[in-house]
Write a structure and sequence with these properties.
Layout: E1 3-12, H1 16-37, E2 40-46, E3 49-57, H2 58-69, E4 75-85, E5 97-100, H3 103-111
Parallel strand pairs: 2-5
Antiparallel strand pairs: 1-3, 1-4, 2-3
Length: 115
């Protein structure tokens, strides 16, 4: 099996009042889809941006990203941060875990001059 990790960032299209419902919907859809396709990962949200890391079999992850995420009306300006082969999963127990933005994540983006 060819295991990969893919991280992307995107901006939400939703108004602030809608984002909580969008996050609930995205997480529900992700858990259902990912558990059926052996994809694991984590989703961060903060300041109007999503940052998601997906891992799993190469074809499954790439299909999810190109066929679903890029076409999802809740995202805009979606950019791949990295895509690389992996020896092992970082989030093997999470079909999808959500974490709000925190100071370490904010500091990382400020260090690398990413809005």
């Amino acid at each position: 099996m060819s295991l990969i990790g893919l991280m992307y960032a995107s901006k939400t299209r939703s108004e602030h009042s809608q984002i909580k419902q969008d996050l609930m919907d995205i997480l529900t859809e992700a858990v259902n889809f990912n558990s059926r396709h052996d994809i694991t990962g984590v989703l961060y949200y903060g300041n109007g941006y999503f940052l998601q890391y997906l891992e799993g079999e190469k074809n499954q992850v790439e299909t999810l990203f190109h066929s679903m995420i890029l076409k999802d009306h809740r995202h805009k300006n979606c950019e791949v941060i990295f895509l690389e082969s992996s020896e092992e999963r970082l989030f093997e127990r999470w079909s999808m875990k959500f974490a709000p933005i925190n100071s370490q994540i904010r500091d990382f983006f400020q260090k690398y001059h990413v809005d």
